[in-house]
Amino acid sequence: MEPIIQVHELRKSFKDMEAVKGIHFDVAQGEIFGFLGPNGAGKSTTINMICTMLAPTSGSVTINGYDAFKQKAKVRESIGIIFQENTLDEKLSALENLKLHCRFYRVPKNKRAERIQEVLEIVDLVDNQKKKVEEFSGGMKRRLEIARGLLHYPKVLFLDEPTVGLDPQTRAHIWEYILRLKEKENITIFLTTHYLDEAEISHRIAIMDKGTIIALDTPDRLKQQVGGDVIELGTEDNDAVAAQLQSAMPEAEVKQEADILRIQVPSSDQFISTFLQQIRVPITSLNIRRPTLNDVFLSYTGRDIKAGPA
Amino acid sequence: MEGIFAIWQRDLMKFVRDRPRLLGSFAMPILFLIIFGGGFSGTMENLVMNQTSEIEDFNYLTFIFPGIVAMTLLMTSIFSSLSVIQDKEFGYMKEILVSPVSRVNIAIGKMLGASTVAFMQGVLMFILIPVLGVTYEWSNILAVLPIMFLLSCTLASLGLLIASLLRSTQGFQLIVQVLVFPMVFLSGALFPVTNMPAWMDILVKVNPVTYGVDAMKKVMTGAGDLPVAAQNALGLNLQLFGRTVTVAEELLFLIIFTSILITLATISFRRANA
Lengths: 310, 274
Ligand SMILES: Nc1ncnc2c1ncn2[C@@H]1O[C@H](COP(=O)(O)OP(=O)(O)O)[C@@H](O)[C@H]1O
Ligand SMILES: [Mg+2]
Known about the structure:
The complex is a heterodimer of chains A (about 300) and B (about 270).
Chain A lengths: L4 E10 L2 E11 L4 E5 L6 H8 L7 E6 L2 E2 L4 H7 E4 L11 H11 L7 H11 L15 H13 L5 E5 L7 H18 L2 E6 L2 H4 L4 E6 L2 E6 L1 H8 L2 E7 L2 H11 L4 E4 L4 E5 L2 H11 L4 E7 L3 H9 L9
Parallel strand pairs in A: 3-8, 3-9, 6-7, 7-8
Antiparallel strand pairs in A: 1-2, 1-4, 4-5, 9-10, 11-13, 11-14, 12-13
Chain B lengths: L1 H16 L1 H21 L1 H11 L8 H30 L2 H6 L5 H22 L3 H5 L5 H28 L3 H17 L12 H9 L1 H14 L6 H6 L5 E2 L2 E2 L2 H26 L2
Antiparallel strand pairs in B: 1-2
Helix pairs in contact in B: 1-6, 2-4, 4-6, 4-8, 4-9, 4-11, 6-8, 6-13, 8-11, 8-13, 11-13
Bound molecules: adenosine-5'-diphosphate and magnesium ion.
The site of adenosine-5'-diphosphate (ADP) has 11 residues of chain A, from strand 2 and helix 1.
Pfam family, one (chain B): ABC2_membrane
Keywords (chain B): Cell membrane, Membrane, Transmembrane, Transmembrane helix, Transport
Family (chain B): Belongs to the ABC-2 integral membrane protein family.
């Protein structure tokens, strides 16, 4: 089947600054596709270009078979988008916001009431629909925006940092809704986030940094590429241990962080049985785990994704 | 079409719910009514009566009132266009722009929203008619309504064009201040603008309010039927290229002004989101 989104050599420069540097990817129908990257990576710029809201410097985007720069009205009908910033009319009630949306997208008149209640149910706002949006909490507003984005049954739903600024509990709820929705409607979901745990729900992840996609694969395979295990070791003399480790296990990748050594090894068994017994310096902490997406990012860029206050 | 209607209705709904704005927009016209109606009317009446013997019972207020209503239309339609900038600031404009509603329909919807609000304010001014002790024929009052709406559309399109080019409310207020007052004073709304120096005369003639005010005065007071000498004395002999313009021509000018401004605003909306 033809991919629902095709992005080819997409570029965007703001004055002297190149925010997106020629990226290339496809998204399959029904897929959850995640864009993961630190703040300023170019995620919003990319999403805004794909959604017809920003003219690219060069490149092409096709959505649902339509050219995003030449057939904007067709593309706009095919997509729903939850922008990074709030775009609700807070002076109106939730219901009024949804009704207006139906009219902008020409949802058939006889289906409107039914669909509005349907999306309100998905995001659990049925009882609050008559309230003005300004009385809503941050999480409720976000949920209402998601409901609104679904009203016209888009082929693709774009979510730009849908949970940024929300508390962990609300974030978890929102993802629950998104996944419930995915199951129900089988729409394609394109999301951006700088929270690692959130990217995990994607079928495939594109890791973006400084305007380029540095890796693109399923979360599992991305982590397999990093390979082996990650050991976080704290000792009373990290420098000495690091030096000793380099000579004893040349295959291990060692990085010094604040007060721990992050050691990447093909297998933790060997590390424990051979190396750990040799060191004389007292150990203060030890943590062995499978690689995370942050390790993936780290291995490509040498930096941590600043995951913000999670 | 439904997009136009939705955008238009949203602005109306918000206006009706916003009491302070409803009251606030009355303050300025009433102030001007007091100054020009109360303070100046004696002087103006003598002036006019001395110029012609054809008017016996002249009430200056009767002539100034349509001007004040036009001024209300000007201020309300331009200030209502501010909603475009507020929509940008509060993010709602993105919801509109990312929808399949065509850019020209967005511009028309926004324009109709602002002009309807202005029109309603203008009509509300009519409750002052008995208070002021002036009288108009009912048929003239009805006939002036479409002119008022058309003038509101022209001015709302102007406000919309300005608003579509700006990002901040402050910038808008600044531009409006340097624009609105000259537009009032150089329109004949408050005092005749005949016999102006040449450069000012040009400003008067490119000012759409001039044609709206002239048409409103002629239609509302029935002055179009007065003898030419009387019309001249009242400053109702608006000339363009050496001949007096008719009400029909004035309405045509307003339609042309509106079409040009809406086109420019549409282009500006198209550019705003590529
Ligand atoms: N309108 C703009 N004008 C100038 N620079 C911009 C504009 N929008 C974004 N940028 C810059 O482009 C880069 C990418 O931004 P953005 O796409 O918002 O990143 P992300 O969404 O991944 O955090 C940033 O450095 C940002 O400052
Ligand atoms: Mg962003």
